[in-house]
Structures are given as structure tokens and as C-alpha cells.
Amino acid sequence: MSKPLIIQAAMVTPITPEFTIDYHTLDQLIERLIAHHGLDLSILGSTGEGALAPRKFRADFRQAVMDRVQSRCTVYSGVLNAVPSETLEELRSLKGLGIAGALVPPPFYYLLNDAEIQSYFEMLADHSPVPLMLYNIPPYTKLSLSPHIVSKLADHPNIMGIKDSSKNFEYFLELRYVVGDRDDFHLLVGTDTLIASSIQAGGDGTVCAIANLAPEWVGLTCLAALDGDPHGLAKERARLA
């Protein structure tokens, strides 16, 4: 069974000069991304500066997005926190919002070993009301999710996939080797320059920041890569440049 292509916009978080939600810009951005281009949304991740926003702001922003989306697309939310108990508490707060999954990195600051990382994600997945999307972003967390650990975590029924923002294509190919054939686990890339290459290598799609600026380009590039269309890819690369 082939998996559907996943294209998510790693959405920016519009704020006012007073650091409150800019609802007017949020309205425009959501309509541009989903009404005009049919993208799914990933909010409060790295592009959305979820790790910097206060907790109440994050809760209010999630509600504002869900109120505006009205089931027109799938929404995922980042839960970026180094404190395990607070991460779990925030995951529990997603219940009933309609959010399809949570993008969760390993706890940053301390250099955990593989067994500790595995235990952390299994604890969260055991108690989270929404599925987890593992978030591999070593430039920010200083931790990398080894392919071996990812393959083990992929067995958990409440872990739906991984977003790889390592910028390391060899690592992505290792992930493809260990989890790419699973129908219940999604392998997504978060590096804009690797979107086409990752899909051609058997990846399942992207969660990308460039969608905020060029949503149509992202969709056409993904489809050209999926179809194995070199002329289409060349056209989209030239158009973006």
C-alpha cells in the first residue's frame, strides 16, 4: 500500500509589536496556505518559534488556528520543551482541539544517550492523547535520533513518524533504509533544499518553512519529484531562483 504524499507548511507565528497574536495577519496567512494551495499546517515548531512563546500564548495560538481552519486541513503542533513533565502536560492539553499530531524533539540541554532518548519518547507516547511526530533537529537540540532508536520507536502505535531537520542526506537515507517501508510511519524532511531529493529517495513528504513564501512552488516541486519528472523539477528550481 502506497502512502499519500504529505506536504505541511511549517507556519510562522504572526505577532504584533506588543508580542500578542496578530489575528489579521494570521487570517491572511491561513487562507493563503490552505484555501489557495491546499497545504496542511505545522504550527509552533522551529519556524513558528514555539520554544520561545509563553505557554498561554501557545494555547491561545493553537485555538486561534483551529477556529480558523475549521477542518479544512490537517494541523500538527510543535511541543518544544526540555522538561519532561511539562511536555507531557502540554501534550495532554491538546486533547479535543482537533490537532492531528504533536511534533516533539528530544529534551535539549543535557546530552542523553540512546536508551534515555528512547525511554523519553516511549513515556510521552504512552500517555499522549495525540500521536507523536519525532523531531530530529540536532543543530538546535545537540542531540540526534539514531536510526536504530528511530526504528525501535516506530514500533510504538502512538508514534506516527519523524521530521528530519538534520540537513544530513546520508542520515535521511539511513532512516529510509530502516523505516521507509512501513505503512504506519511517515518519513518527512524539514530541510527546504532536500525536498525533491528526499521524495525521490522514497521519503513521504515535507514540513517546510519555504511554504510560507512560496506555497505553490512547494506543491509543484513535491509532485514533480514524486512523478520522477526532471523537466518539472528543473522548471521549479529556475522559477524559485
UniProtKB/TrEMBL annotation:
One Pfam family cited in the UniProt record for this chain: DHDPS
CDD domains: DHDPS-like
Superkingdom of the organism of origin: Bacteria
Alphabetical GO biological process terms: small molecule metabolic process
InterPro entries for the chain: Aldolase_TIM, DapA-like, Schiff_base-form_aldolases_AS
Keywords: Lyase, Schiff base
Keyword check for Lyase: yes
A Gene Ontology molecular function term of the record: 4-hydroxy-tetrahydrodipicolinate synthase activity
Family: Belongs to the DapA family.
Name of this chain's protein: Dihydrodipicolinate synthase family protein
Organism encoding this protein: Sulfobacillus benefaciens
